[in-house]
Amino acid sequence: MKIKRLLAFSLSMVMMVSTVPALVFADETDPETTETTIVETSEPKETEEKKPSETEEKKPAETEEKETEPAESSEETDDAAVPEEKTEDRIPSDTASVEAKNATAWGKLKWSFNSKTGVLSISGKGNMPAITSDKGAPWYDDRFHIEKIVIGKGITSISDYAFNWCSHATSVSIPSGVKSIGKYAFYYCDDLLSVSLPKSVKTIGDNAFMRCESIKTLKLNKGLKTIGKKAFYACKSLTSITIPNTVTKIGESAFNYCISVTSLKIGTGLKIIETYAFTDLRALKSLTIPNNITDIGDFAFENAYSLTSVKIGSGVKRIGFYSFGWCKALKSISIPGNVQTIYSSAFDTCSELQKVSIAPGVKTIGQTAFFECKQLTSVSLPYGLTELGMRAFESCEKLEVITIPSSVTTCGHDLFYNCKNLKQINASEDFFNFPYVLNGAPNSVIKNKLLENNATVKGKTAKVKYKKVRKKNRQIAASKLFTISPKQGAWYVKVSGKKKIVINKYNGVVTVKKKLKKGTYKVKVKVLATGDSTYKAASTWKVVTIKIKVK
């Protein structure tokens, strides 16, 4: 029995020892970890069922963005690679939402671009933020995909470079309230068809619409004051330009190379036509320069190949270098007496120019001023002209006779170089003594020396009806008040008489101002006979008395 009990006890002890490792292992095992493992292995089936659908929805969009992202390139590459696809085929940029659902803040303003419609919209109130470089606009990467620009009401300025190189934009909406358009703002928007500015715009910056080569219609607003340099340079499709009366300054080359313009109207507020302002208006046929213009700048109308008629206003004092150079169709020109200087090459290579009439008052004709005016047959040079530049009439091949007034005191050499048909020059002896003045002229040319002038001058009486002078000024021709013998040109200066009686110095026309009372008025006038193709100017003035009867 004892042995049986001992064996049973030993067996029970062995069984207890055998169970210890299992208990210890169970104690070291973390029940929470076991549960987590169960969670991770129990949900994958659901995840595998859901994820494929999410992937199918998201991946195509991501793939499309990557495929359609435009490659970055330099400015020159962009210029050469402007897209030509149809609107619906153009590739949207990844820099803006395809649907443009959310506008992007830009300073105090907001902008959005819808690549499906090609519309760029800018909204808010105030000035556009400054853009300091040609690539600085926030929509610059989308520039080739923009087809319409809408600037919201409330915006008061358009920044420099704002829309430069938006080369497929065909329209722009500029709201009332915009006061300024910055430099290069619409540079190379060469699909833009028309521009209409609201009354609020005061300034257009330099190069603002440069190379907008498709613009056909341009409406500049009343109230506009300044047009910058090259503002509309190379707008090749533009057909008409009207400068409002409010504009006081146009920059250099403002409308240079607008080769399709057939009509140009210059407003009354402008004083100076700047250098190259209207160069290469190749389709322009006629031109009127209003009386308010005082200076026609260098090269101002050069290469106006179709220009046949020019009327220069009485206020012009200066005609600049090459201002009408290469106006090949121009047939005649009259220079008013207020002009003091015709600068070098002003009418260079006006190859169809036949007649030039220069009124008394012009003092200087620059060198090569009428170079290669091959059809020129008639030139009228006034008394009072003091200087002729060298080669002023070079290669005027059809010029046969010319009279140089005795007032000329300075003359350049080779004045008539290559004037193959020149037969006679009427001039004072002093003129023929200028060195090399006839170098290059035909050896057979007749040197006709002007005679001394002993002209007589007499005053006469003219009548004016009171009924007519009561309401408006009346003019009396010099021939009705003065007799000059032999007949020739003259200068007239009033010495004494009624203030309401005025005499023109160069043509002797007498103006009787309105509301002059009835009566007979004596006016003393000194007269200088200025000569002609036979006589040089008289050496002394003659004083005469004229009478004007108002009855």
Q: Which features does this protein show?
A:
Immunoglobulin-like, 551 residues, alpha/beta, elongated, 7-stranded parallel β-sheet, 25% strand, Leucine-rich repeat, LRR (right-handed beta-alpha superhelix), 5-stranded mixed β-sheet, 6 helices
Helical percentage:
10-25%
What fraction strand? Answer: 25-35%
What is the assigned CATH homologous superfamily of one domain? Ribonuclease Inhibitor
Distance between the termini: 180 Å
CATH-defined architecture of one domain: Alpha-Beta Horseshoe
Number of strands: 38
- Oligomer classification: single chain
Low-confidence stretches: 17-101
Indicate the topology.
Layout lengths: L1 H27 L2 H12 L1 H25 L6 H6 L23 E3 L2 E6 L4 E5 L24 E4 L5 E2 L12 E3 L6 E2 L12 E3 L6 E2 L12 E3 L6 E2 L12 E3 L6 E2 L12 E3 L6 E2 L12 E4 L5 E2 L12 E4 L5 E2 L12 E4 L5 E2 L12 E4 L5 E2 L12 E3 L6 E2 L12 E3 L6 E2 L12 E4 L1 H4 L13 E4 L6 E4 L1 E4 L1 H6 L2 E3 L5 E4 L3 E8 L4 E3 L6 E3 L6 E13 L10 E9 L1
Parallel strand pairs: 3-4, 4-6, 5-7, 7-9, 8-10, 9-11, 11-13, 12-14, 15-17, 16-18, 17-19, 19-21, 20-22, 21-23, 22-24, 23-25, 25-27, 26-28, 28-29, 31-38
Antiparallel strand pairs: 1-2, 2-3, 30-33, 32-36, 34-37, 35-36, 37-38
Question: How would you characterize this protein structure?
Answer:
- With 551 residues, the protein is α/β, with parallel strands linked by helices.
- Among the domains are: 285-450, Leucine-rich repeat, LRR (right-handed beta-alpha superhelix); 456-550, Sandwich (Immunoglobulin-like), CATH 2.60.40.
- Helix content is 15%, strand content 25%.
- It contains six helices and 38 strands.
- The protein has a seven-stranded parallel sheet, with no helix packed on it.
- A hairpin with a 4-residue loop joins strand 2 and strand 3.
